[in-house]
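Limitations

Structures in this collection are predictions, not experimental determinations, and the ligand pose is part of the prediction. Treat each record accordingly. The example that follows, with pyridoxal-5'-phosphate as the small molecule, is included so readers can see exactly what is and is not provided: the inputs are given verbatim, and the output is the predicted complex.
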Amino acid sequence: MIMYLNGVYVPDTEAKISVLDRGFIFGDGLYEVWRAIEGRFFEPARHQARFENGLRALKISQPDDTKAAQIRAIADRLFAENSLQAGEATLYLQVTRGVASRTHHFPAQGTKPTVMMMARVFTPSEARCRTGGSAITVPDIRWHRSNIKSVQLLPNVLANEQAHQADALEALFVRDGLLTEGTHSNLFGVIDGVLRTHPANDFVLPGITREVVLEVAESIGVPRAEKAIGIDELARVDELFVCGTTMDVTPIIRVDGAPVAGGSPGPITNALYEGLLARLYSRQEVAKT
Ligand SMILES: Cc1ncc(COP(=O)(O)O)c(C=O)c1O
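Predicted complex:
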């Protein structure tokens, strides 16, 4: 695979960074993931805005090669180099605070952030979105700034491995009795005919798919509330699903071994999945930046 690292295109086997990189030492960095369909990004402006908000939150000054136009150009080259212009792909971007001698406080002004991008083939799992799968619940032991797409993903990794071991698709975090989100997805449920999801505050990532799902819900007249689902409400949830750039809308039909409602995907979930597909694969709406 040909990757982009600090201004050069190199095979992944030759893409090297210093062991003093603050991403390696402290997990001091951010990432972003774009979905691309035949080379066209889905919702590029929203991904760019979230990434730039994260840079500001972490006080990393924006490297020139991470401006929207440059990312577009680098992605085009990576898609070409890796034969990804047809079909689907993801573009992964990671920026760290750069290489410096190890001090907890920020290094001297002018330390160059590390910038890495890679493009990989992506195969959406339509069958999984039609049939759904299981989830487990885990305590949300993450920090209080889960809205930042930081590379510090250890709690997410541990929780997702726990789900994997339990043959579940996703682990759902629970904080103070409320379901927040999945390890790499946002969570939605339908209770009393109302589509519910955690508000986009510091405790969840403001998912781009989450925003699109809320827009689709509005367009088809589904009542919605940005109000977290309590763990004690799970027993009376009529539908449950997770969503994300690589999950699309995936129904959750069992939680901690107990079936959700009838144990099969519900009509609102299915309608939202269809609406998301229409947005994803409509050429007009997946305009290039
Ligand atoms: C913790 C978390 N929540 C939600 C999401 C979904 O966000 P998006 O729809 O922007 O992919 C992700 C995506 O990776 C995530 O890591």
